[in-house]
Amino acid sequence: MPDHPLFTTHASVQPEWIDYNGHMNMGFYLVAFDQVATDRFFDYLGIGLEHKQAVGNSTFSLAANIDFIGELMEGDPLRFTTQLVDYDHKRLHFFHQLYHEDKGYLAATNENLGMYIDMQTRRSTSFSEPQMARFQQELELGQQYGKPDGVGRQLGIRR
Predict the structure, then answer these.
(1) Could you give phi then psi for residue 135, rounded to 5 degrees?
(2) Contact of 106 with 97, CB cutoff 8 Å
(3) H/E/C letters for each residue in the chain?
(4) What are phi and psi of 4, to 5 degrees?
């Protein structure tokens, strides 16, 4: 059993996220993953908005995959967990899982690759040694949970 839980945050399905089918629209899954799970995870790691304002560096998305697994409706309570899967001197690979808070089912997953950017040059830059040490702690925590199902998956029609 891991020593500590993965980073976890909460939200609820907003009315504006509902489409004409009466459930959460696929585009708003990315909004929720980005504006709730990623932003709060970056704050937790010390590389969020306050860091950008203080240092002038931020993290841009290079790639994101979403798997839609269970339906969500307006007002449903949400629980996001985030696991750092890998990192190097300028990139982060992380994986979100989105659960229906009350019913406990996995509703969606979101795999991400981000790049650290110097906002003045708009070019990639390296994380500091203290940041890398913090990422190593988070990576080691995630390794206690094992690699999440769906990491590195490819799209295609199985035959």
Answers:
(1) -65, -40
(2) yes
(3) CCCCCCEEEEEECCHHHECCCCCECHHHHHHHHHHHHHHHHHHHHCCCHHHHHHHCEEEEEEEEEEEECCCCCCCCEEEEEEEEEEECCCEEEEEEEEEECCCCCEEEEEEEEEEEEECCCCEECCCCHHHHHHHHHHHHHHHCCCCCCCCCCCCCCCC
(4) -135, 155
Mean pLDDT, residues 94-116 taken together:
97
| Mean of pLDDT values over 30-57 | 98
Going by pLDDT thresholds of 50, 70 and 90, the confidence category of residue 1 is: low
Mode of pairing for the β-strands spanning 91-100 and 77-87: antiparallel
- Structure confidence at residue 153 (pLDDT): 81
In the chain, what is the greatest distance between 2 CA atoms, to the nearest angstrom? 51
For the cut 90, the answer to whether the pLDDT of residue 108 exceeds it is: yes
Measured CA to CA, the distance from residue 156 to residue 65 in angstroms comes to 13
Q: What is the arithmetic mean of pLDDT over 68-79? A: 97
Task: Give pLDDT, residue 154.
Answer: 79
Instruction: Report in angstroms the alpha-carbon separations of 121 from 47, 55, 56, 91, 118.
Output: 18, 13, 10, 17, 6
